[in-house]
Amino acid sequence: MRPLREGSVVFVTFEGPEGSGKTTQIALLERALHATGRRVVATREPGGTPIGEQIRAVLHAHENVALVPAAEILLYAADRAQHVREVVVPALQRGDIVLSDRYAESTLAYQGYGRGLDMEALRHITAFATGGLRPDLVIYLDLDVELGLQRKRRAQALGRGEWNRMDEQATAFHQRVRTGYLTMAAEDPERWLVIDATRSIEAVHRVIYERIETML
Ligand code: TMP
Q1: Whose CA is nearest to atom 9 of ligand 1?
Q2: What's the pLDDT score for residue 89?
Q3: In this structure, which residue's CA is closest to atom 21 in ligand 1?
Q4: What parts of the chain have a pLDDT lower than 50?
Q5: Which of 99, 115, 162, 192 gets the most CB atoms within 10 Å of its CB?
Q6: Residues 216, 7: contact at Cβ < 8 Å?
Q7: What is the number of alpha carbons within 13 Å of residue 149 lying toward its C-beta?
Q8: Which string of DSSP letters, residue by residue, matches 163-191?
Q9: Is residue 101 in a domain?
Q10: For the chain, what is the largest distance between any 2 Cα atoms, rounded to a whole number of angstroms?
Q11: Which structural domain range is residue 115 located in?
Q12: How many structural domains compose the chain?
């Protein structure tokens, strides 16, 4: 599959540890871009398609503690293969801006740096799943791991958001994930925008919006 990438198409992905505010920022950016008359598709991984939502349920179910890392990565990859072909590529071909709550970099951070799976294998599986489609910009909302998990627990207690199988991994796992994100961002600073997620929602939004405007 060769995705069409013409004109000023923009594929932006949001990454970050648990509770970093990706979902809030995507909603704000989507609204701001709509207000300027732009067409935007906001989507997510895992999920984003009816089949992907079923895969998400398997991945996040608390009872699936027996899920082995190799099966876990292949389920994330299956979700991504469906998502790219059913949602992302068609939207980019229409000329829409695509904002995705997580994408391939989550696999490298969680299954690679977090679980310790072989990075080369992960890159091959990811390239197969995506058909080589890479984001134009990765927005990484950086946050202390404990603080993020605390935020997420609080939101869940108020009935907002979920507390899933991945959230239950040890703090050391989440710390490796964060270190992984920061390493990838440092290796590719042109494609990654790192933002301190402890700043106010409005301040984070402003930084994101200004960067996107320069790309359009
Ligand atoms: P979220 O929708 O709350 O961000 O939850 C998604 C969870 O799935 C989060 O813990 C990160 C994890 N994940 C992976 O481990 N690998 C992946 O490739 C993706 C997309 C998500």
Answers
A1: 166
A2: 97
A3: 106
A4: 1-7
A5: 99
A6: no
A7: 15
A8: --TTTTS-HHHHHHHHHHHHHHHHH-TTT
A9: yes
A10: 47
A11: 11-215
A12: 1
Cα distance between residue 171 and residue 44, in whole Å: 24
Q: Which neighbouring-strand residues pair with 141?
A: 195
> In DSSP terms, which residues pair with 101 in a beta bridge?
14, 44
Contact (Cβ atoms closer than 8 angstroms) between residue 167 and residue 10: no
Instruction: Using a cut of 0.90, tell me whether the model's pTM lies above it.
Output: yes
To the nearest 10°, the Cα dihedral for 76, 110, 184, 87? Answer: 20
> Which CATH number is 40's domain given?
3.40.50.300
User: Tens of pLDDT along 47-103?
Assistant: 999 999 999 999 999 899 999 999 999 999 999 999 999 999 999 999 999 999 999
Residue 165 within a domain: yes
Q: What is the DSSP letter of 88?
A: I
Q: Would you say the CB of residue 17 lies under 6 angstroms from ligand 1?
A: no
Assigned domain for 164 exists? yes
Distance from residue 163's CA to the centre of ligand 1 (Å): 12
